[in-house]
Amino acid sequence: MTYSNTQLFIGGKWRPAHSGKVIEVRNPATEEVIGTVAHAGQSDLDEALAAASAGFKVWRNVAPFERCRIMRKAAAIMRERNDEIAPLLTMEQGKTLGEAKMEAMAA
Q1: Tens digit of pLDDT per residue, the chain (107 long)?
Q2: Residue 44 and residue 47: Cα distance in Å, rounded?
């Protein structure tokens, strides 16, 4: 299992930070660098806030039943991918696999 390098998801697109900076993700048990996460700066945060505001203008007009359907679908996908998600939580946080599986299922 490999840990993927994570970019910023802003306005429906994955991208690196404007600065190109990243934060190393280390396995707490081995101190091995297992991946990176894009390090958002002020301009990234401003862009994310503008995108979230625009997205909320659309989301608030979605009927409650439809919002519920979408959120339940997202939860189902999380449960379906639990066997992929839990080992990543273990690698990045040092949780036991059982604890990671419970956390992913509860999310």
Answers
A1: 677 899 999 999 999 999 999 999 999 989 999 999 999 999 999 999 999 999 999 999 999 999 999 999 999 999 999 999 999 999 989 999 999 999 989 98
A2: 5
